[in-house]
Amino acid sequence: MAASTRTARPAVRRITLLVATRKGLWTLASDAARSRWTLAGPRFLGHNLHHVLADPRDGKCWLAAARTGHLGPTVFRSADRGRTWSEASKPPAFRSDGGRSVDHVFWLTPGHASEPGVWYAGTSPQGLFRSVDGGATWAGVAGFNEHPQRKAWCGGDQDGTPDGPKMHSILVDPRDAGHLYLAMSSGGVFESTDGGADWKPMNRGVRADFLPQPAPEFGHDPHCVRFAGSSPDRLWQQNHCGLYRLDRPSTEWVDVGVGMPKSVGAVGFPIVAHPRDPDAAWIFPMDGADVWPRTSPGGRPAVYRTLDGGRTWRRQSQGFPASQAWWTVKRQAMTVDAREPAGLYVGTTSGEVWGSRDEGRSWRCLARNLPQIQAVEATG
Amino acid sequence: MVARPADDPPMIARYRVKIPSPLVSYTLGHDEVIVTLPELSPDHAPPLRAIVAALDSSFPGIRFRMVDEQGELRPHIAVFVGSKAVRDMATPVPPDTDVMIVAALSGG
Prior knowledge:
heterodimer, A: 380 residues, mainly beta, four-stranded antiparallel beta sheet, globular, B: 108 residues, alpha+beta, five-stranded mixed beta sheet, 2 helices, 15% helix
């Protein structure tokens, strides 16, 4: 048999966006160039989906955090990229003798690469849950949920955002399955080095202007925390009180919001790390003045990008509406793909998905007229 | 308590349970199902929570969507026992009483 003369080319990865909305799940599938996008859905029409994402360990398993207006919280799982779904037989729930009830599952995080089938979930009110069977059954992480300081860290179950206090930004160190971070609105950022058996606040350097103490140990309001691309020793944080960067082993966050224009401010919900460059990240600023409108400042939406670790931020808005666009982008509703150059995506509460295939330089609308978008995640 | 001879057949309590549309995915599309369970005694009707537990054993998962982990009805779920709205899961439900589960929600 003659040897093939054809040169193998690396497969071009098409991207699928999982768009979780207050009324169901839609997907947007790209062509190889990421220029044409095909909208499909809805799935789970009428269900309030706070987070849907694909397992990067196998690419096939998708999990969806769901509830409806009347029905309690649950998790749906698909083992075939969303074609068929089944409900968790034991969704996240607090202990029956603890007096607390999960209102909704807010955040999902796949576990470490060495632990296939492990997932973490963060809930409202704040609770940490773990599954070891791909999301079929969930158990509370006692090291957090029963921690003697938990109530002090979290406050009351009615405290926090209007939609309830939230646990989010559960991060698993890719080098160490036992090294975890989580964030709470409100509560702050916490670290565990023993697989969740114990936790410590990690909020030094972060402002909490809404608290009476000048430098509280906890009680902060992180909106989103991410590992820097290719460097789990660096974390980015979008906080209610600005932007921060943490370079471990330091435990002191550095304020990197000072480089933002005063007229725009440094408040928003999401922060997205470049998949490969640890100095690069994007934010989507929103108006944090007086009553916290949480809309694009001046009605002129833009992302801001840093390429130098947060020292400077540059506006990127080509293609976005130039005026009268009062967008809100939730913390799970901005994401990046792994392609070169990286694609960047935002979903708005007014039901539009926008994408950039040139790392934020130019944008175009990929879908509109969807329900309120709560999360956008990329897979492929 | 009324004593019964040991060879008496067990007393069975039977309930017709109306299922609201958000929960019929659990009941194979049926908006009405029959739940049976042993009656504790002629003097003590089973509590509502026992009927919901029996419902869940036939249709796994339905209970947690309507009752939280503290055993309380979720805020936008209502239950009528006969014509009376109840929220206490300990409410006794006499056999042959109709139980109606209602998903009550306003707004968008």
